[in-house]
Amino acid sequence: MVPTVSVLLPVRNRADFIEECLISVFTQTFQDFECLVINDGSTDDTAGLIKNNRDFRLRCFELYRDWE
Questions:
Q1: Rg of the chain over CA atoms, in angstroms?
Q2: Percent of residues in the chain assigned helix, strand, coil, to nearest 5
Q3: I need a surface site. Which of 1, 6, 10, 59 has the fewest CB within 10 A?
Q4: Strand, helix or coil at 21?
């Protein structure tokens, strides 16, 4: 079944905030959503922290910046 709402979270090097952000998203009273995190080439532990979250509504997309 397709969720009613898609929450988009673009992130880059936000390991210090990502866990708090995901907790905030997943504890909302409205529950018919998916959370799409777009990790834009983080070089800190942002990707690892996202992958530690096992909520079925979370999907992470990794973008790589090979032009830098």
A1: 12
A2: 30, 30, 40
A3: 1
A4: helix
pLDDT digits (tens, 9 = 90+) for 9-34: 999 999 999 999 999 999 999 999 99
Q: How far apart are CA 40 and CA 43, in angstroms?
A: 9
Give 29-48 pLDDT, tens digit per residue. 999 999 999 999 999 999 99
What is the distance between the alpha carbons of residues 8 and 25, in angstroms, rounded to a whole number? Answer: 10
3-state secondary structure of 32: coil
Strand arrangement of the beta sheet that strand 33-40 belongs to: 5-11, 33-40, 58-63
Which pair of tokens denotes residue 35? 């959370």
